[in-house]
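Repro case for the chain-ordering regression, as requested:
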Amino acid sequence: MTEFSFTLLATDGMARRGRIGTSRGDIRTPAFMPVGTAGTVKAMYPEQVRATGADIVLGNTYHLMLRPGAERVAALGGLHRFMDWERPILTDSGGFQVMSLAKLRKLTETGVTFRSHIDGSAHELTPERSIEIQTLLDSDIVMQLDECIALPAETSEMERAMELSLRWGERSRAAFGHQPRRALFGIVQGGDDPGLRARSAAGLRSIGFDGYAVGGLAVGEPQATMFRVLDEVTPELPVDRPRYLMGVGKPDDMIGAIARGVDMFDCVHPTRAGRHGHVYSRFGVINLKNARHRDDPRPIDEQSPNDNCRRFSRAYLHHLVRSEEILGAMILSQINLAYYQELVAGARSAIEAGTFNDFAAETRAGWARGDLPVL
Amino acid sequence: MTEFSFTLLATDGMARRGRIGTSRGDIRTPAFMPVGTAGTVKAMYPEQVRATGADIVLGNTYHLMLRPGAERVAALGGLHRFMDWERPILTDSGGFQVMSLAKLRKLTETGVTFRSHIDGSAHELTPERSIEIQTLLDSDIVMQLDECIALPAETSEMERAMELSLRWGERSRAAFGHQPRRALFGIVQGGDDPGLRARSAAGLRSIGFDGYAVGGLAVGEPQATMFRVLDEVTPELPVDRPRYLMGVGKPDDMIGAIARGVDMFDCVHPTRAGRHGHVYSRFGVINLKNARHRDDPRPIDEQSPNDNCRRFSRAYLHHLVRSEEILGAMILSQINLAYYQELVAGARSAIEAGTFNDFAAETRAGWARGDLPVL
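-- result from build under test --
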């Protein structure tokens, strides 16, 4: 049995190249984690997810606790077996989605009660129950329950939520106990206030976690604010633990965050965008719904290492998207996940070579040049 | 360039084992053709369709003429290139779906005018235009335009539609001309009237086609009626040409029709049923929406040669179906298409061995025994 570990292999400025060791395999960092919301990365077979280069996927505690239910997943052998993904899984605490999806939410010191958006059934999520659920799912990386608020917000509100999250972090740590095969990550809150963020990070450090997430970003604030907070927060985090920026993001967000010392990302964006006909590529975002692609025999990118970017014409993909064919969602989700993995793989190589700034500049320049000229 | 050919390799009673040769590869008969409605077999990559054992897929002229348009597909290199399926494609004439899907239809001796169900645009389909569209799509097996009516129907109405279909068959034959790389199939009509069916078959034979389809079945009549009509019709068809039962069907329909001398089938049923949570298997139909599967760790069929039937638990598939996850549609479409191919492959082997009746009886006995007992 391999215990959870983090090895910092190289740095380039603030950017870090690392390796997370888990009993289910290594995670190369910087890492992008595809989101397997309800036990599936949408429109993808697990082996296709792996083939894009993903070392780890994320599971959503909120969705899974409601359906099929954590005890049921445990009885069926855990989430890995359930979805046929044998590599590491990180589960969120469920808190974020309770606040964004559930009905009749009521937050107290104890936790949060709510009703399911699926069938209206009543549920409670406390720091202890969140740990229990994530353990039942057999998660490899467990997240503490926190309270994430939208920005902009009043300082007093950011402080209240940050302090509550710290107390929940302490309860999460106690409930988690000693589980060397699993990791528990704390979550830095504090909105866009440097002082609150520093207090949050200090509080979490003194509790002690296996990794540190930055929460409460990408919740409505400008990218510049997110980067400024990261500039302030990452120096407050232990060098020898992985750093995870939750719910981020677009490719440009990831490049900027890697430059600021972030190791891990997750976001539904690549799969969701794919289902809506948007493709990420070295040319930037391509909207395949656009009529300019209707007669275009060219593939997305004939130089891409990804077969799906070379074998299908833009005209065909346009047709699939316009016809709302499932195959369109399948292909475009795959293309986007593969591009995200290509991006973090490129970042990893560049950090090792000490050329991350060049990599970031070249990548951004490609996006800025934009798509192929219209035929 | 291989010219279209049909070789009868073995017979067992009325059941036939054959090989259709085309310039894009052979088709082993009895053959089931997955339906690639609008340029995609729904929820399946083309290589997955091939991996199930399919030698040929069907494309729908009605859908493709409306979107993306036959001239556009031709400009993009034809339907094979468009959907990345390099093996044979059969296209229907468009007539059946005009009558079932289009708006403001008007049928005359010339053809049928209608409005698109997608955008209301006006279109005309004549025997000549149908051949032209199918040629633009670069179809390997082209179907004549016919008029297919629902059963039960008045004899006079069945006769009128049959006679019109014969005249349209003649015009289709003339429009098709001499294209040795492509085949043109005529379509027997005549409802459930033996005399009309015999006149239709005789008329088509005297025109001369590369293959003969039986149309106007599986349109509301009992299975016994369909089998009775097949008993009457197949002896009227040339022995040395393939016979295609259009739009059929369920596994049990195919077994019965193979016993009556049919070589080719197509149906949307396996993919559509998969999208609705129904799985075909040696245990018969399994409704994965049913709560009995909610906690069932067993796979669909641990003895299946199909990986998807062994690797995922029924509980997981139940979860995907209930959650309306795209992966559910993907897996269940694959399972059903693979089972259909397993069935025709079994029929082919049995006919070669002279044991088709045993194969049919054993297969039906398995369906009759039903699904695994509830855990």
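Ordering looks correct now. The radius of gyration of chain B is 20 Å.
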